[in-house]
Amino acid sequence: MKKERTSMNSTKRLLLRLIVSAAALSPLASFAADASAPDQLIRQLSIETLDAVKSDKAIQGGDVGKIMELVDSKVMPHVDFQRITASAVGRFWRQATPEQKQRLQAEFKTLLVRTYAGALTQVKDQTIAMKPMRAAPEDTEVVVRTEIRGKGDPIQLDYRLEKSDSGWKIYDVNVLGIWLADQYRNSFAQEINAKGIDGLIKSLADRNARPAASAPKKG
Questions:
Q1: How do residues 108-144 score in pLDDT, each as one tens digit?
Q2: Domain ranges of the chain
Q3: Average pLDDT over residues 185-200
Q4: Which N-terminal stretch is annotated as signal sequence (predicted)?
Q5: 143-157 confidence digits (pLDDT tens)
Q6: Plot region of 176 (φ>0 → left; ψ -120 to 50 → alpha; else → beta)
Q7: Pick from 89, 64, 84: which is nearest to 210 by CA?
Q8: With DSSP H G I counted as helix, E B as strand and the rest as coil, what are the percentages for the chain, rounded to 5?
Q9: What is the DSSP letter of 135?
Q10: What phi and psi values does residue 130 have, to the nearest 5 degrees?
Q11: Which superfamily does CATH assign the domain made up of 38-209 to?
Q12: DSSP assignment, residue 169?
């Protein structure tokens, strides 16, 4: 069980690291993206994130507070976080009270941002290739497919987006065939079955209360 959990945690860290790697879009830095189109939104979001990382030494050093500000200002406006959390919690979401749902969203967001913080310090020279998007103009849900390129084999990185009144929103991410919500759903279900929804909330809160891992030293 311990080995399985360690493997799962490693996969989650890899997934978030690769999401951050999508920000390495220096060849596209001069491209003026149209955020009204889902694929252009992904380009624009990646460029803005990279620019913020490059211009802030605190973020490069793994400052969780600074990264929280970055994620809140650049990423969260384009994410349907309620849908991501509901999908990760699965069938138990319908059983949660409004207060529990709010707390689950808050703790899950913090968990991902803290993982994101560690990943941001490891962005190197990866670039992203946008794949042709197969969608009709009237579609309200699409998948934007991309590929991370660097040393080694290319890595699949896809986004699910939904069109809302305020524009396109990301509600899931796929790395190497694994969707983010699916990756968390099994572990969340185990926690809820053992300790209830409040038990999952407490488990997430306890994990988020631990000191963030310090950024690796550059030697």
A1: 988 887 776 666 556 556 677 788 888 888 899 999 9
A2: 38-209
A3: 96
A4: 1-32
A5: 999 887 777 788 788
A6: left
A7: 64
A8: 60, 15, 25
A9: -
A10: -85, 130
A11: Tgt2/MlaC (3.10.450.710)
A12: E
